[in-house]
Amino acid sequence: MQENRLAECCESREVHEDLLKIVCEQLPSEEDLMDLAELFKVFGDSTRIRILFVLLEAEVCVCDLAEALKMTQSAISHQLAILKRNKLVKSRREGKSVFYSLADDHVRTIISQGMDHISE
After folding, report:
1. Among residues 119, 115, 92, 89, which one has the least CA distance to residue 104?
2. Angle at CA 29, nearest 5°, toward 26 and 34?
3. In terms of Cα–Cα distance, which of 42, 44, 47 is closest to 103?
4. Is 91 strand, coil or helix?
5. Cβ(100)–Cβ(80) under 8 Å?
6. Which distant-in-sequence residues (6+ apart) come within 8 Å of 92 by Cβ?
7. Are strands 60-61 and 89-94 parallel, antiparallel or unpaired?
8. How far is CA 2 from CA 5, 71, 77, 103, in A?
9. Is residue 109 classed exposed, middle or buried when 0-12, 13-18 and 19+ CB atoms within 10 A define those classes?
10. Is 60 exceeded by the pLDDT of residue 76?
């Protein structure tokens, strides 16, 4: 059975003004929507998701991340820079090591809800 490639459409064109007014009043600005789209692009990379999953469990240094994910420290650092720039992770220096952790509970919630969604 082949799935339809297009979403179903209304049979007649009728604008529901009352609903449209509510939607337009609640719609975020174009800039906010673009920022949100950019944030979700960050989650669109499997390496960054893997890093975030490690950080769900513990605060770790770049060396530990590289070992856990079987990647080079350089590759991990590149992805961490993107995650940090997007305020998804934070870092702290301890001696010669730099430890990374999730920036806040919002990141944990986003990942958790994403996993719930794909598990349905």
Report:
1. 89
2. 125
3. 42
4. strand
5. yes
6. 98, 99, 101
7. unpaired
8. 9, 40, 43, 43
9. exposed
10. yes
Nearby residues of 98 by Cβ (< 8 Å), 6 or more positions away? 61, 62, 91, 92
Are residues 55 and 102 in contact, defined by beta-carbon separation less than 8 angstroms? yes
State pLDDT tens for residues 10-69.
888 888 999 999 999 999 999 999 999 999 999 999 999 999 999 999 999 999 999 999
| Residue whose tokens read 């991340």 | 65
Q: Which value, in Å, is the radius of gyration of the alpha carbons in the chain?
A: 20
Read off the amino acid at residue 59.
E
Instruction: Locate 11 and state its tokens.
Output: 């049979």
**pTM attached to this predicted model:** 0.81
In the numeric block, which tokens belong to residue 69? 């994910």
Distance separating alpha carbons of residues 87 and 95, to the nearest angstrom: 23
Helix intervals (H) in 1-120: 17-26, 30-42, 46-57, 62-69, 73-85, 105-119
